[in-house]
Specification:
Blueprint (H helix, E strand, L loop, with lengths): L9 H15 L3 H8 L3 H11 L8 E5 L5 H8 L3 E6 L2 H5 L7 E3 L12 E7 L8 H11 E12 L5 H22 L2 H9 L7 H11 L5 E5 L4 E7 L2
Parallel strand pairs: 1-2, 1-4, 2-3, 4-5
Antiparallel strand pairs: 5-7, 6-7
Helix pairs in contact: 2-7, 3-4, 7-8
Length: 230
């Protein structure tokens, strides 16, 4: 049995993820800053920079949480829309962007009507990654761009060993001290949901992001998938 198969699947996963993020919403931003030593700010900035869209373009941030990426999108001159199914996260959001409470696997957005989409650290939390990518291809116009961030494991063996210790031991401890230990114990375990990076790139290419590529950030602590809608 794979590690992913031991985690919640299907509707059980959907309910568990929503409950988890509702629980940690009030201190979500603080925990992110502490456990990443503030590097998450730079990762989001790199994602938005990779869009390379005309100013004023409409960009949907999927699983927007408390609005970090929405604020970054607006700082770059985009018109941001946030979508999340966690009511707790939306209540705790700190952004002027319009927010929609909805499942990102069933986006309330018309076909080819937005210029781009971002997603920060939520790929492993959706019930079906393939369905998410099909939705992205549906709502992003031809020539539009996507930028998807998620956690990663460094390729370098030494960095990978250090990252494993920190991610699997320190992160749940930090999360427990500031917020909720059970929720942050899920974070390292949830990595098992992610397919290998080449498979993710291939999935994006298959649905219509022909130039999809993966970039490692901060030595591989985080990965960014970006591509253009054909």
């Amino acid at each position: 049995m794979s590690r992913a198969s031991k985690l919640p699947q299907g509707e059980d996963k959907r309910r568990a993820v929503r409950r988890l993020f509702d629980t940690i919403a009030p201190r979500y931003d603080l925990v992110n800053r502490v456990m990443t030593f503030g590097m998450d700010v730079g990762w989001r900035r790199a994602a938005v920079r990779s869009l390379r869209l005309p100013g004023g373009g409409v960009v949907a941030d999927l699983a927007c949480g408390t609005g970090d990426l929405c604020r970054e999108l607006e700082r770059f001159g985009y018109r941001a829309i946030g979508v999340d199914f966690s009511h707790g996260m939306l209540v705790s959001a700190r952004t002027s962007a319009p927010l929609v409470e909805a499942d990102i696997l069933q986006l309330p957005i018309g076909d080819a009507t937005i210029d781009g989409a971002t997603c920060g650290f939520a790929l492993r939390n959706v019930v079906s990654l393939g369905t998410l990518f099909v939705e992205l291809a549906r709502v992003v116009r031809p020539g539009g761009r996507i930028a998807l961030l998620d956690a990663s494991r460094p390729d370098n063996a030494l960095l990978r060993a250090g990252h494993s210790v920190y991610f699997n031991r320190a992160v749940p401890m930090i999360g427990g001290l500031i917020s909720n230990r059970e929720a942050y114990a899920y974070l390292p375990r949830s990595m098992a949901y992610l397919p290998p990076p080449p498979e993710i790139v291939a999935m994006l290419v298959e649905v219509g992001f022909a130039d999809a590529r993966r970039e490692q950030l901060s030595g591989g602590l985080t990965q960014l998938f970006a591509g253009t809608r054909a």
